[in-house]
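Handoff note, outgoing to incoming analyst
You'll be picking up this chain. Sequence as last confirmed:
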Amino acid sequence: MTEDIVLTIPSSLAREMKLPPDTIREELLSELAVSLYQREIITSAQACRLTGLERYQFEELLWKRHIPVHYSEEDLDQDIRYAAGNF
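Most recent structure output, in case you need it:
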């Protein structure tokens, strides 16, 4: 079993960020998730778990940043089978 990974951001750097202090953690997690998703290191489901966002919220975040959603023909086929009740 793997351990959680903890990233340390120096408080001096956090104070210098042009972000409201109460949003820094959320913003940094979103930046990490979007970057890893864009590089195809994690899936959208994993990015949602990392950020705590619902799928539509994460996809809206991608849309606002002009980042395409990774959606293959295989994904489409799975969605069609699911919608048709053929899991």
